[in-house]
Amino acid sequence: MTPGGDEIAGILALEPDLGYGAYLASDCTSCHADAAAEGIPRIRDLPAGTIVAALVDYRRGARQHQVMETIARRLGDEEIAALAAFLGEAD
Description:
single chain, Cytochrome Bc1 Complex, Chain D, domain 2, 5 helices
């Protein structure tokens, strides 16, 4: 399994709170809008697993971007699950 794979699987197994995900996503969509600026990826409708994996990688420091690392390190597993469920499509 890839590094962080157990952590990702554990987050994906949580029962997400979509309302909380909607609340949290308001911060994400200010930069990651449907028409995001160049270099900022659109995150809406990505597979939920892709969103979880990216946030876990930023949180662990395996993926580097100063702003995203700071944000991801503040997120708990339940928050990541809620965001992925709200923003993402079902895997």
